[in-house]
Write a structure and sequence with these properties.
about 375 residues; alpha/beta; Rossmann fold; 3 domains; 6-stranded mixed sheet; 3-stranded antiparallel sheet; 11 strands; about 35% helix
Amino acid sequence: MVRKIERDATRFKQIVRGKIKSDLRKYITHGEMIGKTGGEFVSIPLPQIDLPEFRYGPKNSGGVGQGPGEVGAPIGRSSDGNPGAGAGDSPGQHILEVELTLDDLAQILGEGLELPRIQPKGRANIIESKDRYTGIRQAGPESLRHFKRTYKKALKRQIASRDYNPLDPIVIPVREDKLYRSWNPYPLPIANAVVLYLMDVSGSMTDDQKEIVRIESFWIDTWLRSQYDGVTTRYIVHDAVAREVDQHTFYHTRESGGTRISSAYSLANKIIEADHPPKDWNIYVLHFSDGDNWGEDNRHCISILRDQLLPKSNLFGYGQVESPYGSGEFYRELEEAFENIDNVALSEIRNKDAIYDSIKDFLGKGR
């Protein structure tokens, strides 16, 4: 009975994974799901899944097929002919919520977007292995003997040789019947990664644009954490000047000054040089802006990227979040300067629906 329950539970998880995967674009754009993250689990609402059950109404309550009635009599009305009114006291339909680990969520994301696995650099050549008992062998210590498989094999042998007596059902395994659990080593990468999130917080970036950045950052983080043993996140905000902040400040700060993107790139480079040497770290720099920048600063930004940030980074990603106040000129500058550079990914994010494709733009290179 226990094994049957476990089998049913596994089947249910497979159904849930299939539902999430088929509607992945919808779940990616729902920011409220991120708020349901607790530790290593994420709570996901699945209103599409209906659990089969019988429902019985109260006896002798009238209705179709019960008691007297006339042709054409309205159904579902009170005796005076008026529809019922007021609050009810019966339970209604509820949305089913299931919990998935962040690793499960990352796997669904990778399958749904067909993301290649990342090939880390730096300390990626240092591999730690973990043993998992997933196989069966014909030799091994008695402590690892698989009782059920051994019993089945012995039973088949005795039936085939006509030694089995149903009236005296004794099954005695011989040496050839015994099967043992075996293990296989699985590599666990211990490479570290640092993700530097840069965001324009000038007056042209509204709360809607920051929400898009928050949702996309969550999914990128989820994927990167499934690829590395340890992921460190650093946050930089900028208008005309840049400063490092904590996560909460990053998503809730809004300034009113101008925009000088090079200030953020220079600060990111200083942080990398001081704390995250490229020989030991896999470095990701992700910048979000509406594309407005002080005109003479564009050339300086390209110089910093080409000479300092790109040689140190696994990936530099620029996401341009469309804003009613932004010109979008900076995207075209980067596109012209780095069109064929492997570790540069550019993405235009017009609204929440574009987050799905933007994640593919950033992570689809497998870097």
